[in-house]
Amino acid sequence: MPATPQxxxxxxxxxxxxHYTVSYEINPWMDSTxxxxxxxxxxxxxxxxxxxxxxxxxxxxxxxxxxxxxxxxAANGATVVDGLVYSAKFRYPERQPEGPxxxxxxxxxxxxxxxxxxxxxxEGDILGVGDVLLAGTGFRTDRAAHAEIARVxxxxxxxxxxxxxxxxxxxxxxxxxxxxxxxxxxxxFPPAFSEASRAxxxxxxxxxxxxSERDAACLGLNAVSDGLNVVVAPGAVDLAxxxxxxxxxxxxxxxxELLKGGGGxxxxxxxxxxxx
Length: 276
Known about the structure:
This protein is of the alpha/beta class. Helix content is about 25%, strand content about 20%. It has helices spanning about 40-55, 100-110, 145-155, 195-205, 215, 235-245, 255-260; strands spanning about 10-15, 60, 80, 85, 110-115, 125-130, 130-135, 155-160, 175-180, 185-190, 210, 225, 230, 250, 270. Helix 1 links the parallel strand 1 and strand 2 (about 60). The longest helix is centred in the N-terminal third of the chain and has 17 residues, at about 40-55. The two termini are about 25 Å apart. The mean pLDDT is about 95.
């Protein structure tokens, strides 16, 4: 049986969606002809930030840059492991300036940074579970980046192949519910992964929460957990019920306007993991 959930305080970096819009299309969620409401996006983001702070977590912010509407998806900006920052190197030209902007923020705040040589989209595709890094590939992050971050961090990296373009980042198809070594727990949507990757997930996490198609379709797996409290999309009702049954505490937060760009709570939240 999985261990009883316990919360731990977290440190997050976020970016207010001041310049949010959908002006280009680089994933199946984006439709540049559909109206986007930047004001509503800011309101939803502010609620998300306030939720984290009410749960006792520390939230820092990076200034949004005009012309970078996807900068709100802070999780894509870098990966932070043991206080070391591995920069993002974005695949699409529209987002490429975000990588240096996030790396500069970390450098300016005294963090040691490693400038990536290989295409990767930060914590969107690299998620820490215990002492292991789960790393997505197939759409945005090159598999060679998995080897690079393994060298940089000294962590074991497990490659997982994504096969459905709607789940183009790992954090849209898999949520880390408990990242504490010895207490590892995840939730995921099996059809988003190749057969070999599903088998690897089943082997490593036999007690994982299996999300329904309804959960996945509202990006319910793009959730943020502190080990007990799970900030999740309101539409992920099946997932919320399973989490409650396991002793977790779901906190539904509406990020529907940000979903138009292909992101949810986790996409907006980059975790700063300190040195151990």
